[in-house]
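Design a sequence for this backbone.
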């Protein structure tokens, strides 16, 4: 007997078929021209923290496990530049870099054509939001299992007012119900295609975001809002460039540490590190820490080896020694420095020359001579600044000035050397207990100072990271002591593994 599936007017609707997307595609919208920034290039090509903004953005989606494919919609005339960035960075998920439309609406239509007709998840994201987090991407994709449209937003910290044509207030909406929209915006492909199909019949259609299209033309479709983040800013105005750069710096300060000694050993075994200024303080502690984790470390200084960083012949001899012993140089670190206090007008020529030579000419000299070695290994140069770089301090003006110069040098070299794969970073520790500081300021309460060991650990984490062009702040832990990484790893029989002998 055949079962009757006919339903009456009061029957419950059938459960919709479960969503089964073929893949998840991230569409990176990069059609801006940088007009408001006053640039001659699209703003997404502007470099922040050592890389073009769009490269930072693409890296997030490339490394997100939820994303299967990336399509870039680029401003007219600049597709080739983005393709070069993609090729050089090795972004495997980027399937297309194509020109977008003249408007946001046209660009979305181009993107939908590029995605194809299969059912899939689509995330639209502004290329100039490089600080989007993996958490946001993950929550957007997860929400599409339940909803067919998803937006990202944060609460408004400001009161929003509505004005008329004369700039007079006509309404003040309740702030608790207001949100500031961000991207990505995520959709089931059928939903966003249908919204745009309906919009094509509206002669007054114009939209600045895709959720607005769904809201207007598919009013019965719920649009889920997930929490964005304050860091997920859009680089639009000149001040945004500085804010984004600082946010990258703050993010870099939280470089994740590896879990244990074995993880560090896997990263550092077979690598060669050269430390200029390695006889005491931060340089000494970094050298010892790297040795314990398996690196071949060569430490040079005025006091221990007679090496003056401002003398090219001394620097070249040091680099040659390390290279001839191991056949490679992966990391070059410059902690050498002098701090002379006194009013500039009262400082003698010899003292001024020593401060400038050691603190600035020295790092410049090391950088120039180390580049050929680091280029071979795609290695990293690590410099050190001081908290005084942001604001000069009385009675050590030259020291502050040279430390500010090192920050500029770091950012410039990261840009210059990006094409050859050499990274450059700068560590900015707060007041640290070192012999140099003690000589300049005398004994200070221990609890007010950062330990040289803590700075050494942070420095090592930076050296094994992929960061470049960063100024990494290192601060005393708040409320808990710094974590320690074991200096020995247990072998399979439970005994401690021996630390290998290293040259230095």
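Sequence:
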């Amino acid at each position: 007997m055949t079962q009757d599936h006919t339903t009456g007017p009061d029957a419950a609707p059938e459960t919709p078929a479960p969503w089964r997307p073929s893949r998840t595609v991230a569409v990176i919208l990069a059609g801006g021209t940088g007009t408001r920034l006053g640039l001659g290039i699209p703003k997404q090509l502007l470099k922040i923290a050592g890389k073009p903004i769009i490269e930072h953005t693409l890296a997030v989606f490339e490394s997100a496990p939820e994303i299967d494919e990336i399509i870039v919609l680029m401003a007219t005339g600049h597709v080739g530049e983005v393709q070069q960035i993609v090729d050089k960075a090795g972004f495997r998920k980027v399937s297309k870099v194509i020109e977008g439309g003249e408007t946001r609406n046209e660009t979305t239509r181009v993107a939908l054509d590029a995605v194809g007709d299969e059912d899939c998840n689509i995330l639209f994201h502004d290329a100039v939001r490089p600080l989007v987090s993996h958490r946001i991407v993950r929550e957007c994709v997860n929400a599409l299992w339940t909803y067919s449209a998803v937006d990202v937003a944060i609460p408004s910290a400001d009161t929003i007012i509505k004005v008329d044509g004369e700039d007079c207030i006509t309404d003040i909406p309740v702030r608790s119900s207001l949100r500031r929209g961000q991207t990505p915006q995520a959709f089931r492909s059928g939903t966003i295609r249908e919204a745009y199909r309906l919009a094509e019949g509206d002669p007054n259609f114009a939209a600045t975001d895709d959720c607005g299209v769904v809201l207007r033309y598919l009013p019965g479709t719920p649009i889920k809002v997930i929490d964005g983040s304050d860091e997920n800013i859009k680089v639009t105005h000149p001040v945004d460039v500085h804010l984004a750069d600082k946010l990258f710096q703050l993010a870099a300060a939280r470089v994740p540490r590896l879990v244990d000694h074995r993880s560090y050993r896997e990263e550092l075994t077979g690598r060669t590190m050269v430390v200029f200024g390695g006889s005491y303080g931060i340089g000494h502690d970094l050298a010892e820490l790297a040795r314990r984790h398996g690196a071949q470390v060569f430490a040079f200084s005025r006091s221990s080896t007679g090496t003056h960083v401002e003398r090219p012949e001394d620097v070249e001899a040091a680099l040659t020694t390390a290279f001839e012993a191991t056949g490679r140089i992966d990391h070059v670190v410059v902690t050498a420095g002098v701090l002379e206090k006194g009013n500039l007008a009262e400082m003698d020529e010899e003292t001024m020359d020593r401060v400038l030579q050691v603190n600035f000419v020295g790092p410049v000299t090391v950088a120039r001579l180390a580049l050929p070695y680091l280029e071979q290994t795609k290695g990293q140069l690590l410099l050190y600044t001081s908290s005084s770089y942001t604001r000069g301090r009385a009675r050590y003006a030259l020291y502050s000035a040279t430390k500010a110069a090192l920050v500029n040098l770091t950012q410039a070299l990261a840009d210059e050397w990006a094409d050859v794969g050499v990274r450059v970073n700068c560590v900015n520790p707060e007041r640290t207990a070192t012999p140099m500081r003690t000589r300049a300021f005398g004994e200070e309460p221990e609890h007010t100072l950062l330990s040289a060991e803590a700075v050494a650990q942070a420095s090592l984490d930076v050296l094994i990271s992929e960061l470049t062009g960063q100024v990494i702040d290192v601060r005393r832990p708040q409320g808990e002591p710094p974590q320690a990484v074991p200096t020995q790893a247990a072998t399979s029989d439970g005994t401690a593994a021996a630390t290998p002998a290293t040259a230095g």
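The radius of gyration is 28 Å.
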